[in-house]
Amino acid sequence: EDQVTQSPEALRLQEGESSSLNCSYTVSGLRGLFWYRQDPGKGPEFLFTLYSAGEEKEKERLKATLTKKESFLHITAPKPEDSATYLCAVQPSGGYQKVTFGIGTKLQVIP
Amino acid sequence: GAVVSQHPSRVICKSGTSVKIECRSLDFQATTMFWYRQFPKQSLMLMATSNEGSKATYEQGVEKDKFLINHASLTLSTLTVTSAHPEDSSFYICSARSRQTSNHYEQYFGPGTRLTVT
User: Fold this and answer.
1) How far is A69 from A48, CA to CA, in rounded Å?
2) Which residues in chain A have their CB less than 8 angstroms from residue B43's CB?
């Protein structure tokens, strides 16, 4: 069974204090790994898709990386508006398979 | 691009009544739409997957007669919670996968619907 584990569950950073969120996954063949941002009371907002080990993608202060077992979401010099829950999800390969989501990391950036 | 809307954003209904939630892809055609429930401090739970013009595929443990899904067009899917009970109170979120990027598998989510059954 596919599994996604995110750590830490919660992270509190000072504004400007860079850090990384971890997503460890177990899947029988990876078609894609996704990162989403979710604000309270709203639906997830798509950030990145990573397809193969070694791939990296960037968007503003966020950079996502992928290995064969885990993905990191690096946040450089975060701002208070980066506060949200970040979700990781995996899509297995081999025909249609449902996406498995992690519980998320709740990030709080303090001014 | 890739905007998904949901309506209503919040709904309160009495036990025993039915509630319909609409999900629309506004600027793209969706090959597949998905319905999720989300509980506090838990991951998104997939309820069902629907393709335009065909019956929805429900996940194990989800009652298809209680949660009716209709995918009438490439831009519209509806979820009807029939004979709602307080335990159906939850945050329901739809998502859509774009037909234009069928080689990619990311889903685009709606803003969610908070259902409260009294």
Assistant:
1) 17
2) 4, 87, 100-104
The Cα diameter of chain B in Å comes to: 43
Angle at A90 between CA A86 and CA A95, to 5 degrees: 155
Tokens 């946040």 -> residue: A75
Tell me which residues of chain A, numbers 59 to 88, contact chain B at a CB-CB cutoff of 8 Å: 87
A92 touches chain B (CB under 8 A): no
Structure tokens at B31: 């090959």
pLDDT digits 0-9 by tens, A65-102: 999 999 999 999 999 999 999 999 999 887 666 899 99
Pairing, β A30-38 against β B76-81: unpaired
The CA-atom distances, in angstroms, between A92 and each of A4, A29, A67, A97, B45 are 12, 6, 15, 6, 16
Our measurement of the distance from residue A28's CA atom to the centroid of its chain's CA atoms, rounded to an integer in Å, reads: 19
DSSP secondary structure string for all residues of A5-29: EEE-SEEEEETT--EEEEEEEE-SS
B47 to chain A, any CB pair closer than 8 A? The answer is no
Q: Are B104 and A104 a contacting pair at CB < 8 A?
A: no
Q: What is the pLDDT of residues B8-24, one digit of tens each?
A: 999 999 999 999 999 99
